[in-house]
């Protein structure tokens, strides 16, 4: 996470780094994780020390006009030390296509874009003018198109947060849209940050999150599509559009419920983000490891909780 004393210029209603959240930037948390601040030199030294245990590096940007040039410099410093795959979680609001071209030329191979909210209305209400924020829905989708043009199909991931006020049908609509663009969805469950504008909003029910995880996996594996899903009168997923035995096999694999993110050197998901959207314990939302048989039994029950 590239940090600045003045922090982030955005003011997203759910974010721990929001501009108007009380406290100094250095004491703020990001998706419930403390991000200790170190000099880049120290990070590179430690990275070299443990490189055999690393699969991928990710640089995350704040909404700060300095960030683009600094990210270019950081990529260059990292590339001078290692050839590990390198992702960027970028902020479309402060970027143009030339920035993406520079990122790729320096050695980044994948792009992440955090749209977060599933509908234009939610995006505007939680990230745009009503909260005095700079972000615009159209700019984010334009940047996804630019990133696909620069980095290629399958090299762009879109972050979405379940539980910001959308229905399951609305979330699956945008997941299908991302898939149709030859991009991937990186899924999060809303987890309220103390001091944020949404600190009193409840987390989404576990059943809601599990159904969306499962449907997302099936769409990304081209086993089903939005048009094959069935929804009830409250726009909750009722059926997934594949035979029951196939559905059970996918559930029992545990894969849909693991952290979704960029791959490592071996082609498997390298990102694990442990406890970014739930606390340690039996009800992990995104498993940073393969769920065991006890976990799978619990997940099977949770999927059908309405």
From TrEMBL:
SMART domains, per database record: Elp3
Keyword Iron: yes
UniProt GO MF annotations: catalytic activity; iron-sulfur cluster binding; metal ion binding
Keyword line: Iron, Iron-sulfur, Metal-binding, S-adenosyl-L-methionine
Keyword Nucleotidyltransferase annotated: no
SUPFAM superfamilies xref list: Radical SAM enzymes
Spans through the membrane: none
Pfam families named among the record's database cross-references: Radical_SAM (PF04055)
Residue ranges constituting the Radical SAM core domain according to the UniProt record: 1-232
The protein's name in its UniProt record: Radical SAM core domain-containing protein
